[in-house]
Amino acid sequence: MMKRAQIVEPLKPLLITEISIPKPPQNGAVIKTCFSGICHSDLNQWRNYIDQGEFKKHFTDNPNYVLPIVPGHEISGVVYSLGEASAESIKVGDRVVVYPWIGCGTCGYCVNNNTPLCDRRHHGVGIGAPGGYATYVQVPDTKFIVKVPDSVPLNVACMLPCSGLTTYSAVKVAKVAVEKTTLYKGKASLLVIGSGGLGLWCLQLARSLLPPTTKIVAADINEKSLKVASEQGFECIHWNLEMTKEEASKMAASKSYDGSYDCVIDVVNSSWTAEKAFGCSHRGSTIVMVGLFGGAFKLPLPQMVHGARTLQGVLTGVLPDLRELVQLVEKKSLTPPPIIYFSLDDAYEGMCRLNEGKLQGRGIIKYDE
User: Whole-prediction pTM value?
Assistant: First the structure.
């Protein structure tokens, strides 16, 4: 038998149930879950909406998305069973992570390894289809399973398919901008807005991937999160919600090389932070929007043109990027965000603490290995 936690109704406690362990799909596998991250995307499903700025998009507006559902898309574990036609490269007992962003498999996006943009995607593992808030998880095709080297702990690995992958993709966008600026000026300044679970991954990855002359600065309103970033060697800016764009920009300017930032990565992406991100940019800057906090902000259009600024949204990453990221984490021995463990029975408590902003790091459901 397997145990699982389900969202049965928006904003209500999760329902713990037991069912039989599923059989593997013909091309797929069943994973015995070791760790599953508690992510803001799980909260979106629990609330049953994503704030789109001008409206709210409800998950249940999609007729193929039906409650109850098992959330959890940051999954690490070991292969428990395999389908008859599964890939020979995957074996029972392998240590793995699951790439959850599964598309239809036939559209132009899917055949070109960009499943997150699939026009027909209805479900992903933990997003509609049963996910990692369960002791076993069914994966439809073993091509969405990535092996984890023995040197990478599975509690770290579980964060890679979402929080790690999303920030890795953001830093890859920033890398293009930073290298271009470094060519012109010999150095560059990067501002990361947000120093929670996503922000700490972003900072670590930026340090690993960007030129060594890059000045990397973290900004946040949360002093405890900034303390962790500071302890990891990053310069920090403590903002507060009463600050205007001009005040926040002036404070940030003192930490950059030349009074503004060549690239800004906003892992919060609220109305408030997006305004500050734009205010900290200058001519030729790239602003990378990552978070899904919601809202909208007023964009001064002539400054986009005259400043030749780039505004880039990053949804998550593609499957080859996840493979790259796993190798990078092994090679660089990156420091993950602080981890707060929960049992499956306490998963709802973890979601509530994340929803209230009371998790200093990354919440993870830990199963018996």
Answer: 0.95
